[in-house]
Amino acid sequence: MRISSADQNKVYDLLVIGGGINGVGIANDAAGRGLSVFLCEKDDFAAHTSSASSKLIHGGLRYLEHKEFRLVREALAEREVLLKKAPHIIRPLRFIMPHQPHLRPAWLIRTGLFFYDYLGKRETLAGSNNVFFDPEKSPLNNEISRGFEYSDCAVDDARLVILNAMQAREKGATLVTRTQCIGAKKDNGIWLVDLQDQQGIYRIQTKALVNATGPWVANFIQDQLAQQPEYGIRLVQGSHIIVEKLYDGDKAFILQNNDGRIVFAIPYLDQYTLIGTTDQEYHADPNQIEITDFEIDYLIRVSNEHFKKQISREDIVHTFSGVRPLCDDESDNPSAVTRDYTLSLSKQETNDPVLLSVFGGKLTTYRKLAESAMHQLHPYFKQMRGSWTKDALLPGAEDLESIAQLIEKIKEKLPEIDELLAQRWAHQYGTRVFEMLRNVHNLTDLGEEIAHQLYEKEIEYLIDFEWAISAQDILWRRTKLGMKFTYSETEDLEQCLIKLHRLRVKEQAA
């Protein structure tokens, strides 16, 4: 969507480049402090790294081995904060670590779990304990007789980005997708930033520029700003496979491997198991990342070494890969590269505008990263208000007593609704579902069903309120219905989007 000429003439306080979790988190925090904010994303929100995670809000148990105590402490505390901020898309999840004595001794794991229980403030999440497996009931291979159990959280990663974007807009920020920054230059203390969308090139003026482009952070500084980055970036590929569920129950497993790494096996969308992630250096175009044969074999092998139910390539129903942009600490091992974030503030001359670049970071600590960014920018924006995001509910969490009660309210409004659809809506939209269901009194009012209980009314809501443009936006980032849709059904959805777009053009013309 092209912005107005008034927006182009305005001098913003902050222009954020990048619509992943860090960019959107910074835009949201800044807008809530009273700054004028513009954000552009070259593709869709969460189109890359932020939708390719292991779908966890976690402290990072294995980071303790690399002595990342500050990061782990911050991440552990954030689990509780984020759980309260968005309980419709974040839920507690118990993890079981099968004990493999030849990999890590029991005393080392118990010590790590002691730190995990007490390093960060824990209010609602249960602590760790020992577990012993019944050979007849356990999904694990019979030689695995004991293990350890602890708590973290599961999250819909892409929706976490979307909810922050929605809140930023409600705080006054302007956010646009499918809009690429093609260059920026300094002029009398401000940045003149050239942006390109499908309609052409236009310019935005801003006092400060935030480079939150993730895997492209260093390239952006070099190519668009003609400067040298202060830090290097290491691109590490992480891939996952999804198979029909390997076991019953709602607990995840954290599997130790002979190379010192760990792999998660996580219940996913009720009927699948999500297995990942890998860690390997990546040197190609982050836009073109795909899982490799080596990664597929690696994840299959780790799974088969632990579970009774054996899998092969034929059992894989979906794969996804992402590039984690890590600040280069010159570690020889990709798994040991710090997951902590580094913020680089650049202001070469006294009257130069500010450039803040984000190196690294992880999903769990995006809110603290944004607060740190605001702290660094505060000297240049003395009018900004104080921190606010810790206790602010994300969209859909307002007036949410419980998911169970919300499901009942949805069913009261639409008595004929399918139980699974009510559950999906409750978890995806929280109380914002009633914005979607405004003027809806029965299933007929939902319009045409494209497939798998995706109705026109929901599609319209995603277009109007969540920046959805393509079928991929809707199927993989706004919902997870992409796991069910066939190629033909996806084409039907694209045709529906074209029809709705034409209707909106006619309405605007009228």
Automatic annotation (TrEMBL):
GO CC annotations, alphabetized? glycerol-3-phosphate dehydrogenase (FAD) complex
Q: Name one Pfam family in it.
A: DAO
Signal sequence bounds = none
The cofactor required is:
FAD
The GO biological-process annotations, alphabetized, read as:
glycerol-3-phosphate catabolic process
Q: What is its EC number?
A: 1.1.5.3
Q: Which residues form the FAD dependent oxidoreductase domain?
A: 13-330
List the coiled-coil residues. Answer: none
Q: What reaction does this enzyme carry out catalytically?
A: a quinone + sn-glycerol 3-phosphate = dihydroxyacetone phosphate + a quinol
Record keywords, A-Z: FAD, Flavoprotein, Oxidoreductase
Keyword Zinc-finger listed? The answer is no
Q: Which domain of life is it from?
A: Bacteria
Keyword Oxidoreductase tagged:
yes
Question: What GO MF annotations does this protein's record show?
Answer: glycerol-3-phosphate dehydrogenase (quinone) activity
Domain Alpha-glycerophosphate oxidase C-terminal: start-end pairs: 388-484
Q: Which family does it belong to?
A: Belongs to the FAD-dependent glycerol-3-phosphate dehydrogenase family.
Q: What is this protein called?
A: Glycerol-3-phosphate dehydrogenase
Native species: Acinetobacter gerneri DSM 14967 = CIP 107464 = MTCC 9824
